[in-house]
Amino acid sequence: MTIKFVKGYAAVVVDVTVIDDPAAATVALDPVRSRLLSELREPASAAGLANRVGLPRQKVNYHLRTMESHGLIEVAGEKQWGGLTERLLVATASAYVVSPSALGPAAIDTERATDRLAASYVIALAARAVREVGDLIRRAREAGKRLASLSVDTVIRFRSAKERAAFTDELTEAINRLVAKYHDESAEGGRSHRLVLMAHPLPRSPSPDTKD
Question: Which domains does the chain have, with CATH numbers?
Fold first, then answer.
């Protein structure tokens, strides 16, 4: 969480906000508004934004009012300009992610993804993490608390499919051993945590010789 000060006003800007409201998601995904959100990582006025993005000020003001009504931006302060008072606006987060829950019944769900070896199940797991952790972060902020979480991200290059399979077996055995050691269903005051492990090939970088 970051606090940005502008002429005596303070705006609280969080690192990431997960958007689960369909209307807010629609607003944020609009190309013009998405550009304005990126420009508003630092406080700016409608006139300043209009100059940057090459749009009429009235049109920029319309987009800003819409984004403000959905909590995507907020007032960070004011400045005097030629006898007029201009509002300075800032994005409420440094980055935004749209939660699958914004799609309602059409969202991907681990309960409907039956093949746990399919790539689609990896996507379902990632979508569930965005949905669940996004909700937990929101609740933690409202309670003024920090959400405890753990993540491990690394890259491993296998020499062969055989060694990849052997690694999978050893890793599964190690996880099962650790879960058996630390899991206590009856622990008073304990809290269950979700542990998810995913692996997928890294995307290939486009070759210089690749043609569209």
Answer: 2-97 (1.10.10.10), 99-182 (no CATH)
